[in-house]
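Narrative of activities, Objective 1.

The group set out to show that a structural description can be obtained from nothing but a protein's sequence at a throughput compatible with the screening campaign. Below is one input-output pair from the validation batch, recorded exactly as produced.
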Amino acid sequence: MGLPYFEINGGTRLRGAVQLSGAKNAALPIMAASILCEGDVVLRGVPNVSDVRFLGELLMKLGVHVQRDADGTLRLNARDEMNFKAEYDIVRKMRASICVLGPLLAKRHQAHVAMPGGCAIGDRPVDLHLRAMRQLGADVELVSGDIVAKAKKLRGREMFLGGPFGSTVLGTANAMMAATLAEGTTVIEMAACEPEVTDLAEFLNKCGASITGYGTPRIVVEGVRELAGCEHQIIPDRIEAGTFMVAAAVTNGELTLENGRLDHLMAFVDRLNAVGVNVEKTEKGVVVSSARRLEPVDVTTQPFPGFPTDLQAQLMALLCLADGNSIVTEKIFPDRFLHVAELNRMGAKLRREGATVIVEGVKRLVGAPVMASDLRASAALVLAGLAARGTTRVHRIYHLDRGYDRFDEKLRAVNADIVRKEDGEV
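Output recorded for this entry:
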């Protein structure tokens, strides 16, 4: 079997409605949190993406029964608490596997987790995760590439989780999950404020946790004896929403995002408005359309509520067609620019200087064979292909399948000329 790729014939204007999937980055830590729960966990709106499937495999090896219904509902139940080892063969496939560390330590009093893999977007150390577990009273060491943590009892305390590039989303999630069953009160200072952290906190509270302050940089967790199961709806994927917003703009089309939430994307929408993209909330959802002339803008990625790093590559694809020079600065992952060389292959004029890329707008992009390097870069290349003149082939789309549910199907439904093929097909 050959490797899959997308073949895109650009130039068609996208029109229609898109139903957004649940947020992968919210679903993964909530799935991991099922380890903490006594009883059934029912999650609705979980996207059918490879990262979710990989974590499902890992949870099953950790004794959690995982079942996906035909409507996408995920049912989880931690039936066997004997295993506490997250083996390398699965963990290497996705960085979010690290989010089982806190639940295993809190519920099973030990965790043996291989160092995670994931996208090649730069250095993403796990030192803040380990610091949080140590501050809760765990003994933590690194042994042959594995994180080995033990604690007969976790005890709440105040901790600071800031790093060189700001707060840590998964680190905050791990600390919060571990603290739910710790003795006493835990205060997490410089906690991540992302909507995905808020969704996790609301899920845990439904299960019987006592968490306040989520959505702010100071989260307070009062430890409880046990958590029950619950039913929970995963929030819509704000990164998928932003990607389809750019898809509408880059093709001079008009799309309705039927369950989009603008409160999760205010910084991104602000920059789109500055470019000349109209984003409007209506009874049907969020409607996105674009002016023919695109203005250049400056943008800097920041932790939420700032401009999301996960939409940097997609906006850059749009700015390639702006009438003037734009400046894109990456403050979260300074090396997250592997899409730059591929966009240049399509006729873009991009010049990287350290953690900044200067984008000189061009009148048009041209189709070319390109290679995806990570999840969001894959999406950016697809967006560029939708706008380009001629045919674009985006290879290594297994990166994209990690985080977008039926991306090509959704694009075809709104008039895109995109086909999934395998190497060797004509």
